[in-house]
């Protein structure tokens, strides 16, 4: 069942996301050697360690939030249809975050399809689970889809988060918890909505 988002506002959205990490973060992530929370925290941590801007760090942290907010539930390796978690996540984020962060969520699946179409060696980086979901998500983009995707003003950031998505699948990597990133997440909300 889809959660009720009508009570969310600038003052509780970060706590809402933190609660998702706390309650659901331990769930298996697509057959990878990390949990859902570990995957997202790893991407954000790698971005922070590499001096990336806060938009990229938060984009990496939240890119898969739709696995928890979708009415269709989380991905399962036996799936034969895509669950469109990227759209479910973006639907929640777009009210509170700058478009670059929302786009990193909304288009991280498209970015995988784009990179598989434009950089043939990228496919070799994909885990078995990511190859399976690629098939469900439409496979590499067509030339027309590539051209349309390249028109996105946030293309560079979306691609950066996609690479962080692939990187955040390391067994036993030490990362800070969500609380470490929470002030940064709040800054992004305040930046989007203006100071209160």
TrEMBL record:
CDD domains, per the entry: HDc
Highest taxon, organism lineage: Bacteria
Domain HD: 38-97
InterPro entries hit by this protein: HD/PDEase_dom, HD_domain, OP_Dioxygenase
One Pfam family recorded for the sequence: HD
Protein known as: Phosphonate degradation associated HDIG domain protein
Organism of derivation: Ruegeria conchae
């Amino acid at each position: 069942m889809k959660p009720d988002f009508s009570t969310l506002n600038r003052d509780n959205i970060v706590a809402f996301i933190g609660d998702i990490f706390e309650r659901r973060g331990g769930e298996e992530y697509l057959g990878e050697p990390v949990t859902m929370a570990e995957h997202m925290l790893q991407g954000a941590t790698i971005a922070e360690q590499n001096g990336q801007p806060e938009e990229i760090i938060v984009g990496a942290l939240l890119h898969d939030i739709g696995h928890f907010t979708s009415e269709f539930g989380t991905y399962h390796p036996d799936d034969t249809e895509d669950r469109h978690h990227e759209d479910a996540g973006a639907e929640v984020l777009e009210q509170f975050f700058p478009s670059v962060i929302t786009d990193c969520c909304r288009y991280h699946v498209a970015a995988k399809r784009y990179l598989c179409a434009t950089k043939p060696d990228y496919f070799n980086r994909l885990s078995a689970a990511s190859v399976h979901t690629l098939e469900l998500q439409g496979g590499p983009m067509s030339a027309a889809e590539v051209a349309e995707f390249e028109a996105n003003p946030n293309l560079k950031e979306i691609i950066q988060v996609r690479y962080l998505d692939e990187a955040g699948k390391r067994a036993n990597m030490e990362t800070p918890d969500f609380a470490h990133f929470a002030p940064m997440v709040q800054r992004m909300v305040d930046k989007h909505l203006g100071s209160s």
